[in-house]
Amino acid sequence: MAMGRDRGLIIAGLGVALLLMVTLAAYRTPQPVAADAPPTEFSGARARAILKDLVGDGVPHPLGSAANAAVRDRIVKRLTELGYSTELQTGLACNDFATCSTPTNIIATRGELAGKNAVMLAAHYDSVPAGPGASDDGAGVANLLEIARLLTAIPAPPHPVVLLVTDGEEDGLLGAYLFTREHRLAKQIKAAVNMDSRGVSGPSYMFETGSANAWLMRLYGNATLEPITNSLCYVIYKTLPNNTDFTVFKAAAYQGFNLAFIGDVGHYHTPLDNWENSSASTLQHEGASALSAVLALARAPDLDQPAADSMFFDVLARTVFVWPLNLVLPASLAGLVLLLAAALQLIRKRHLSFSQAAFGFLGALVNVLLAGVLSGGVLVLLRFLGRLPPMQAPPWIAHPMAMHVAFAALALLTTVAVSAWFARRAGFWGFWFGGSVLIALLSVAAAAILPAADYVLLFATLAAALAVLPFLWAITKGRTQTSGRADLAVLFPGLLMAALLLPLLLMLYSGIGTLAWPVGTVCLCLAAGFLLPLLGNATAAARQRLTVLAAVTAFCGICITVLLPTYSASWPQRVNVEYWIDADSGGAHWWTQAASLRLPRAMAEVLHFDPTPRERFPGYPLDGFFAPAPALKLAAPELQQISAAPGASTSHVELLLHSPRGAQAAFVIFPADAAIQDIVIDTPTGPLHAKLHKLRNGATIFRAPGLPEAGLKFGIDAAAVPITVQVFDESYGLPGDLAEGKALRQARPKNATSSQDGDVTVVQRTVRLDPAAGR
User: Is the pTM of this model over 0.90?
Assistant: First the structure.
């Protein structure tokens, strides 16, 4: 008898275990195809060999650097040897983030393009200053070159393929802006496939499409052998502070697909993003997916498709299910109505009462809320204990597996507890009503607000409405043996929801970091709402064993995380060292920014750092530690007023930003009271306008990475009163003749690394502009 009461729980446990194994197997990256594969087959091994040639020296190659030009030459050489006509496009470009520079794009074509709609394959070849960019985006470039070779071995598709390798992506998509704004082929491009990364390993996700979404996803699903995609990925992506070149292509009305991989994100934008840490399996998956997507678009009868959005998801990386977005809300409402109708039938047949339904719904809701409070509390506790990075730091740790398990156990713990609290008042069908209707209500809300994100909730709702039908049919016919049908009513929607959730939960931590734990716990509790009837009907012994198992597992996971180091050599803390000198006062200081807001002890012992972190400069969003430094005689940046044209209320002032010491980047900060909102740069194709970024203190900032030797001319509109402006130039690396800098770099522990711009030298000065003067 006890075994019969626990049968549903046993089946649920076995089902979840089986689903987990199947999901892990389905979403592994494929084995790379060997280098001696036929020329018409994409080979990850060949692509990784190309990658080694491009960035195997491990030298960073940011925009405007000599190393950047060397990588560009290697790419052009390979394309030329394959028979492509290559062109370098150089020009001024500004983005929407107050950044302007002069990127150099590589455009490669074969055959006649005149008058034809074209498809574009794109990747970017610049890296951040801190790392060699083997995966971001050397992997995309290597895949592009392998695809370029393959395209020469197959018949040309109806729509020609243009290869675009952009520059300046890391500084704000500058090469993509330049291409779409100025290149003659930009108007012929109708669709693009972009390859990028936010990590160095793992499967490649197709996470963003153009506006003709419904057509594109059917095309992608039919063409790709191992598609990994869902519409919820893009909803999450839009909440992150990230853009890719596809953002610009999409704004230019291109259709197409955006691909990226996100595994081992701790290496992203650091020196660890090198060839040794790249993955041939990841190259294989992204390259094969990009090739399939490009050929599907190039062979499509018509690339001019109307805008139509859809909800979509892959099924175990084997096919893609596409659902028109305008049907999501009606389907959600229909599912809710069917569940309510089923509940009324259960009430009529005296299997459910209104009070049981109310307590069942309350129990399901309490389970989710309790899970959210407890998981959020654990996250706060771990952060308070210093075992998690602070909010503004990259939200990943070196050893997350214990907490993955602990938070899953926390979801089970709250579900078992709630089932015990409400079992007598809710009963089996009260819990069924509560779990099902809660999912259905959330599905309706998601369908109304974010329909693309609704597929898990929607299909769980529809499954719950369908799965109860055999039980309703049985009781209508007067059948007495209905326990199996009752178990089916909760097992089918519960396992289906788990099957849809697991692929999302497996990638969620790589995407959003430690926030994935409470989010995942709440999601698991929503799915576990279908377990409440089984737990409520189970024996007290079974519930007790599950309670002890879940509590011990969660406690052990938390303890392990507290004991293990937050960072490691393979997953380091990001710590940059900067040397700053004020040319006005002659004073100098060190500024060290640690992601944990805790300066490593070995570095703190080198110099006397102020224990209280402060902002890099007024209005800067991150804090770091200051220490006095010896002053060097470094040439200060210049901001020269070339001319001023007075107007009715403002004067237009032309300025020249220049670094006499040849720094690679510069930035200018205008005071808040000057109300400088944008700048304008004259180019051969017309004026470029860039809206300035506002800092926390109201001042506005303009950035110029890859600063030309001759400087950069730009104009502002300002009131005809003197303006005091802060000018900075930034060179990569620390001054070689300062022993303190060498000591700080050597003291940086093995579980720390530079990132993004890396260690830099900054010289600042104050410049007074007078718009009322002609010069």
Answer: yes
